[in-house]
Amino acid sequence: MKKRVLFHTAGLITASFMFSSCSKEETAKTVTPTPSLYERVGGTTMVNDPVNSGNMIEAGRLKLRAVVDSSIFVIAADPQMAKYFPVLFAELGMSNKSGLTALSKNFTDFMCTATGSKNSGYAYTGKSMKAAHDPAQHSRIAQKIDKADFDKFVGDIGKGLAQNGVTTANNKALVDDLVALLYTTQGDIVQK
Amino acid sequence: MKKGKFFKLLIWSGSIFLVVIAVLVTHIYLVTRISKNQDERVRQLSRIDFKQNIDSQEADKIRAFVNGLSGVENSYFNLDNDILVYSYLVGKQNSFNVYNKLIAFGNYKAVRYVVNETDAKSGCPIGTDKTSLSYKLAAYISKF
Question: Which of A108, A176, A187, B91 could form a cystine bridge with A65, CB 3.0-4.6 A?
Answer without folding.
Answer: A108
